[in-house]
Write a structure and sequence with these properties.
six-stranded antiparallel β-sheet
């Protein structure tokens, strides 16, 4: 499950959509459920979206939403604060 909390409307070239954007199976995680921050980028490394996923290192946000917007990569935030590209 994933939820997009931020979008780069300038890079996307369209008016900002109402947020959050949710996967079809999204359910608000319980208090003890861990979530993982991700961001979706285009081929030039421009960040288009940021959000959270309940599964670490999942391509679902990119496959289900990002590719339709021209995105080609997904990164997850590591414990130390750096981003890791899948």
């Amino acid at each position: 499950m994933w939820r997009i909390n931020w979008m780069n409307s300038e890079a996307i070239g369209e008016e900002e959509r109402s947020l959050p954007i949710l996967s079809r199976d999204w359910k608000e995680p319980k208090e003890n459920c861990k979530t993982f921050k991700f961001r979706v980028l285009d081929g030039d490394g421009v960040v288009y979206y940021e959000g959270v996923s309940t599964a670490v290192y999942s391509f679902r946000p990119l496959d289900e939403f990002g590719r339709g917007m021209g995105c080609t990569a997904i990164q997850y935030k590591e414990t130390g604060g750096s981003w890791s590209t899948l």
